[in-house]
Amino acid sequence: MAERISDAEHSVMEVLWDESPLSAQDVSERVDPARGWSANTVKTLLGRLIAKSAITHEEDGRRYLYRPTVARGDYVAGRSRRLMDRLFGGRLTPLVAHLAERDELTAQDIAEIEALLKDLKA
């Protein structure tokens, strides 16, 4: 998937990553109610995601069933890589340093990073 998905489209993707295939009505019922979206809004977002090849659909009687074409993990990995490439020259260390310098790493975050590094060294 080459095109970036918007925050609104991402909300629809989260629904489909959690459960699919789903009809447009199913997606509409599962999207965060705080968004206040109508079924037509969800259908518009589904159409955009199809155009971006982020999802696919198949006929099921008089309705369509939608499913993602990319796994959540693969999407996150790609977006993370692009962020690191764009802002930190493709390097992870400056990203972690940036977060640490801004006091955005909790003690739990630090412990998890240390455990991950320990596992990677083993």
Characterise the protein shown here.
There is one protein chain. The chain is 61% helix and 11% strand. With 122 residues, it is mostly helical. Strands 1-3-2 form a 3-stranded antiparallel beta sheet. Helix 1 crosses helix 3 (39-51) and helix 2 packs across helix 3. The protein is elongated and about 55 Å long.
Strand order of the largest sheet: 1-3-2
- Mean pLDDT value: 92
Largest sheet: 3 strands, antiparallel
The total strand number stands at: 3
Q: By helix and strand content, what is the structural category?
A: mainly alpha
Distance between the termini: 34 Å
Give the low-confidence spans: none
- Percent of residues in helices: 55-70%
Sketch the topology as an H/E string, one letter per element.
HEHHEEHHH
Briefly, what is this?
With 122 residues, the chain is mainly alpha-helical. Helices cover 61% and strands 11% of the residues. The two termini are 34 Å apart.
Which descriptors would you attach to this protein?
3-stranded antiparallel sheet, mainly alpha, 122 residues
Topology summary:
Blueprint: H1 7-18, E1 22-23, H2 24-30, H3 39-51, E2 55-60, E3 63-68, H4 72-88, H5 92-101, H6 107-121
Antiparallel strand pairs: 1-3, 2-3
